[in-house]
Each structure stands twice: as structure tokens, then as C-alpha cells.
Here is the input.
Amino acid sequence: MAAYVGVRHAVVFNAATSALFAAYSAAGIGEGDEVVTTPVSFVATANMVLAVGAVPRFGDVKLDGNIDERFIERLITPRTKAIVPVDFGGKPVAMAAIREIADKHGLLVIEDASHALGSETGGAKVGSRADMAVFSFHAIKPITTGEGGAVVTDNDVYAERLRLIRSHGIVKKKFWNSDMTTLGYNFRMSDIAAALGRSQLKKIDSFLARRNAVAAYYDARFAGETLFSTPQIPIECLSSRHLYPLMLIPQLHCPKEDIFEALQARGIGVQVHYKPIYKNSYYEQRFGRQSLPVAEDFYRSELSIPCHQGMTDADAHYVADTVLEVVEQYRYRGCSF
Ligand SMILES: *Cc1c(COP(=O)(O)O)cnc(C)c1O
Here is the structure.
């Protein structure tokens, strides 16, 4: 795992959620601290900030769902300890710009790369330029161990802390003597899961190639489409293509539930990524209502269609045909209020 990403250490966990908790803890983030992150992610990214006693400050995103680096600086306060970007759908975040801001303010970059194992910018793998980066091996992620996750880092001290947090904070001494030096947990990946992970990791490049072939086919089929757009991957980047998002035009925002239902009814497992984290009732009750314009619009527009190495050419044709047919049916429906 470490060799694949191009870093010194990979510490595996039983989930990316526990890996995020351990990464924030290893970074010394705690009570009274703040973290700048994105609302367009799975809740665990921000939940684990709360779990270590800190507060997430949400920055708005760009049209591709990645955090907008232009808005990061205004969220930084004397309490800020880290920037936590998420490579949405596998598209690498603007790491050079994010690193520059972090370095200028003395902050860490902890990348939630749960979508992006194998993604690259300029030949550098996602995760290799952060202080720590987290990957998920949940069943639907680029590779799977059933449930699982990892933190990768070049930093020996963080790696040591991560291992302690993962396993009860216990250091083995002589014979039966051991010492618990820090508060730890049991966040260990099982050997059975790790065996699956090793075999999956051998296949990652073929998985990525197949996902990219399906995505390239969609790109070609959807070129010139007027009812939705599809975020492009810059030439210098490789995406894991964890998601293939369609961004529906405003006219299709109202009938999105119907479009979703129609596609599900035809056997296409569509999904919406993500309801902005701050819109969840727990966050609203704790922090009040928030609204970031691009994140809100992203949530209204986004519809992810299947893009997976298990898909045949015929599957991809069926998805593209059906998507085009269904959205066309809603072209003139508009909003009914
Ligand atoms: C899946 C995911 C997680 C959580 O991963 P688990 O392995 O299920 O704990 C965290 N962050 C992001 C962005 C994810 O997509």
C-alpha cells in the first residue's frame, strides 16, 4: 500500500472512519481546535473532527465538487489546525494550492482520499502530498476489504502514533510487561480482510483502467448534451472514477426525484452525492443553519450513475441509452409549484 501510493508508511484500519479519527488524533487535533473542510463529502469526514473534540468549518466547493481553494483562507482562525480536502468522485483536489495555503498558515493537510486510491496529478498519486491521507476499503470504494481503511504518511512520528491509537495505546516491553502510553482503541483490520486487500491491490490498475474506459464511453455519449454536464478530468490528472456524476440543469432539479425513481425502476443504481454535511439535523441543531451556494446547487444538480469495473460494454450502453431517454422525458416538465 505504501509503495503503491509512494509514501513511507501505510497504517491500515478497520474502516476509513476510524482511520480519520486516528489521523486527527495523531495530528494532535482536539478540544478548542478547528478544521477547514468540505461539506460535499460523506458525514464521517466532519463527524470525526467532532469526535476528537474539534469543530469543522465548511468551505464552499467548485463545480466539480472539490473544495474551492479561494475560500479556504477566510475560514482560517488562530484555532485552525488542519485543512481536510476530499477528492470528490476520485478527481484530485488542487493540492498544490491547498499545500501553499497550509504552509503559509502553519497548518496540516489531512486528505480524505476515500474515493481516490490510484488517482494521480502529474504522475504523483493522491495521498502522497498530504501530511496524512485516508483511504476507504468499504465495499463500494476503489478497492475493498469488506470494511476497512488506511492512513498513509511520510511522517515517522505520525505513523507510530497511528499504530498506538489503532491498538489500545499499548507498547510491548520485556516478556509479559507492556505499557499503555496513550489512549488507544481496537481499530485493527482483521487478517482476513487484509488478505482480501492484498489481492485487491494487485488488481487496482486494471480496475482503474476499466472504470476509465466506462467513463470515456459516457463522455463520448454525453458530449454536447444540453440537459446535464459531466465534470471533466484535466489532462494531467488520472481519476479513480469512483463516481461518474451528472450535473442536471436547473430545469431538471424539481423532477430529480422522478428521474431517480425512473432510473432505479429500470435497474440502474443511481445515487446522489452528497447532501451537504451541515444540512443534517445533528449539525443544524449544534451549529445552526448554514448555506454555501455552490454546495447547495451541487446537491440539487448531482446524480451519480454506475461506473464500475464489473460493468460490461453492454451495461454501459444500457446505462447511457436509458439515462438519455429518461432525462429527455423530463425536458419540459419543469417544476410543478
Ligand atoms: C466512504 C467514505 C468514508 C467512510 O469510509 P468507511 O470505510 O465506510 O468508514 C469517509 N469519507 C469519505 C469521503 C467516504 O467516501
